[in-house]
Amino acid sequence: MIYQIDRPLAQTELFSLTVINYNGKKSVLKEPRSDKGPEEYRLACKSLTREENHLKLLRGNQGVVQLLESSFGDPAIIINYVQGLTLAEFIREGREKYLQNMLLGEQYVHHVLEKVTDAARIQSSLSQILLAHADFSPSNIILNPQVTLIDYGSSVGRSGKFGFPTTPSPKKSIYCAPEQILHTDVNETTDTYSLAMTLWESLEGLPLRNTDHSFAQENELKTAFFSHHPYLAREITTLIRQAAAPSSFDRPKLEEFADALSAIKI
Ligand SMILES: Nc1ncnc2c1ncn2[C@@H]1O[C@H](COP(=O)(O)OP(=O)(O)OP(=O)(O)O)[C@@H](O)[C@H]1O
Ligand SMILES: [Mg+2]
Prior knowledge:
- The protein is α+β, with helices and mostly antiparallel strands and about 270 residues long.
- It has 9 helices and 10 strands.
- The chain binds adenosine-5'-triphosphate and magnesium ion.
- Adenosine-5'-triphosphate binds near residues 9, 79, 80, 86 and 153.
């Protein structure tokens, strides 16, 4: 395997991500962190195997990060580099401005609704291949400016071959549906739940729920922009509440969630 290292990209709980030049293309090497213990290494390998196998199934699908190389001796994958900001970075950069200016507020809310809708539609289009992405959060959606979904390390396939994904860490569990915490059946609406949490955080700047799944905030959008748009606040809040219903059977499917979001007029 020949590649040139460009720069470090990210260091997460289990992984080290590096921007590399691979076959003349800017790419990303994702591998287990070398500074962690054997248990973390085992979890990282399990997640990489899952991601590698599921990305193979998703090859050629629009809006999904592409697997370029895998199984080259070391537990690692090479994926295409997606230029752009993650939704998490976009929130950090854009929300403050949106709080202060009503016109920018409209643009920001419109943009966020559109991007979460796109994420729901992309994942919905994969439902014949995968049951769920199972790890939606603002940091797993890249805007370039079209949406690209990344991080299929927790995804759930239709074959059940890779068993249950690893138990989410407390930091990530704020986006997880109850069935993921309880290890009961995950389905498409598991992603609806996490996208609803992602949407809330994009609009309010803070998570809706605590790690124990109690509400961290009053569940009504209340930033300055929404106090001037109470009808809109109610409409979005109602949709988020439905999408984050405790029982997966009470939630809209991804396509229904996307349709409801795109019907909101700002
Ligand atoms: N293909 C890519 N192109 C550009 N940036 C990427 C790419 N893949 C990952 N990143 C960046 O690296 C970060 C971590 O990558 P990734 O989500 O795959 O790791 P993880 O350990 O599985 O994440 P998590 O913290 O969600 O568990 C992403 O949030 C994003 O900022
Ligand atoms: Mg991630």
